[in-house]
């Protein structure tokens, strides 16, 4: 992966987010997309060494499209300004499709690399089952939260959108009541890709995915129905 070329392309796309520019620069996009696909393919193989469940994940389906969904957006810009992928055991990357817990990463127009593991805004039924599992398997969930490598790499679970009080069916005395209020069960961190080579990028992402594996594995144990 030519990280510098990807950074430059995304920065220019951010400044020229329109179809004419995209079409004119399509050869650059195609090359970078192919490199990102190759990177994702290698990451799947690397993850499979410590998490065999993802071995069959199709790298082409793991990549997100660069086209934005404009149906419900007031922002008319047609393209995302990041390259991203979500690697899952199910092969489905979107929570709404039942993708389940994922290893996710992206590189954006500001040269920021985001690395994440877990479930981001799962659908209501799935979220309810995760919350129920937090209570039913309080000791197992505690073990995940205390995992030394996970905490060193990511800190605590992200609290974006966290409720101010426990949801219906739970109360303040519920085990892990603080986490039951979460809408996502995910960890992530960010860093600059400035100065990174493609090999360094791959190794950084893979190491962080390995550190996130305890949370991904715990979430996989949550019943789907």
Descriptive overview:
With 225 residues, the protein is of the alpha+beta class. It has one domain. The chain has nine helices and four strands; from the N terminus they run H-H-H-H-E-E-E-H-H-H-H-E-H. Strands 1-2-3-4 form a four-stranded antiparallel beta sheet. A hairpin with a 3-residue loop joins strand 2 and strand 3 (112-119). The N and C termini lie far apart (40 Å). The relative contact order is 0.16. The mean pLDDT is 94.
Keywords:
single chain; 225 residues; alpha+beta; four-stranded antiparallel sheet; 9 helices; 45% helix
Quick overview:
The chain contains nine helices and four strands.
What oligomeric arrangement do these chains adopt?
single chain
Which residues sit in consecutive blocks of at least 5 with pLDDT less than 50?
none
Mean pLDDT: 94
Structure class? alpha+beta
Number of domains as seen in the coordinates: 1
Largest sheet: 4 strands, antiparallel
- Based on Cα principal axes, name the global outline: globular
Question: What fraction strand?
Answer: 5-15%
With strands numbered from the N-terminus, the spatial order across the biggest sheet is 1-2-3-4
Distance between the termini: 40 Å
Q: How many strand segments?
A: 4
């Amino acid at each position: 992966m030519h990280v510098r070329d990807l950074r430059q392309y995304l920065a220019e796309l951010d400044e020229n987010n329109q179809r004419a520019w995209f079409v004119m620069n399509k050869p650059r996009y195609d090359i970078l997309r192919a490199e990102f696909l190759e990177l994702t393919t290698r990451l799947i193989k690397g993850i499979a060494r410590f998490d065999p469940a993802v071995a069959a994940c199709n790298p082409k389906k793991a990549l997100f499209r660069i086209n934005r969904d404009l149906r419900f957006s007031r922002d008319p810009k047609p393209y995302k300004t990041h390259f991203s992928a979500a690697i899952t055991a199910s092969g489905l990357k979107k929570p709404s499709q039942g993708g389940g817990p994922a290893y996710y990463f992206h590189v954006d127009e500001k040269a920021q690399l985001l690395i994440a593991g877990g479930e981001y805004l799962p659908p209501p039924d799935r979220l309810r089952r995760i919350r129920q599992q937090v209570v039913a398997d309080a000791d197992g969930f505690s073990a995940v939260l205390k995992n030394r490598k996970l905490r060193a790499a990511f800190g605590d679970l992200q609290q974006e959108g966290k409720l101010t009080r426990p949801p219906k069916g739970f109360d303040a005395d519920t085990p892990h009541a603080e986490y039951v209020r979460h809408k996502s069960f995910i960890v992530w961190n960010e860093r600059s890709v400035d100065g990174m080579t493609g090999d360094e990028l791959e190794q950084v992402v893979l190491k962080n995915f390995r550190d996130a594996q305890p949370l991904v594995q715990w979430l996989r144990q949550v019943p789907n129905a």
